[in-house]
Amino acid sequence: MANKRAPGHAETRDEWAAKIAALGEPGGTERSGKAPITVARIMEAAFGLVETEGFEALTMRRVAAALQTGPASLYAHVRNKAELDELLISELCARVPVPDPDPARATEQMLEVCRSLRDEYLRYPGISRVALAAAPNSLEALQLSEGMLTILLASGVPPRSAAWAIDAAFLYVSAYCFEVSLRHRPDSGADQRVLDRDSLVERYRMLPPDKFPNTVAHIEELTSGEGHERFEFTLTTLLGGLERT
């Protein structure tokens, strides 16, 4: 999480304290008021837009149009697009269930959390790019990180190893989902920048064997994997290899 910037501008200390104080209160993360435009409605419209058209289609103007209002009406509730992005990621993190720690099942529990986060990201194509660009500094993201940290520490993973593993897991889940979104864009079905397996195999077979002997010999292995097999392999390798005391 180090060396990443927070989206938008940083909250003041008082704003941060107010959010913490509101934890557990009904509607604590929503802004009050009787106006028909609310944070919840803005987020609902934004999620609907991303789910059907992809994250690239998300703009304040498009959200305003979906709510049959002008963009200026949104800024009374959401400062800018960067804050809206953070609200959406925070909501997705809040949806991920975190089990009570079971040291005997720590790796599987971490995989369950990562799978749930993956599925939330994949439901909204391209949205994981927000998580790639910013540290998880919202309370919802920190609560998810806290749950993962609790699982690893309870299983005997040293604190620094646990912290770095969580950071790596977050990064991998976000990058994996972003890559998938490039291959399966809602508008065109596939992104031209990403080759399908057949095209990749064809290019590998064109390589001169004397210069790429191992690549040519193992084309099948290099291009193998169905569904989420590579996702499972990568995270199982990462999490299963953690040293425990």
From TrEMBL:
Q: Which residues form the signal peptide?
A: none
Q: Which GO terms describe its biological process?
A: negative regulation of DNA-templated transcription
Cell membrane keyword on record: no
Alphabetically sorted, this entry's keywords are: DNA-binding, Transcription, Transcription regulation
Q: Which residues form the HTH tetR-type domain?
A: 36-96
Q: Do you know which Gene3D superfamilies this protein is assigned to?
A: Tetracycline Repressor, domain 2
Q: Does the keyword Transcription regulation apply?
A: yes
**What positions does the DNA-binding region cover?**
59-78
Protein name, per record: TetR/AcrR family transcriptional regulator
- Lineage, uppermost ranks: Bacteria, Bacillati, Actinomycetota, Actinomycetes, Kitasatosporales
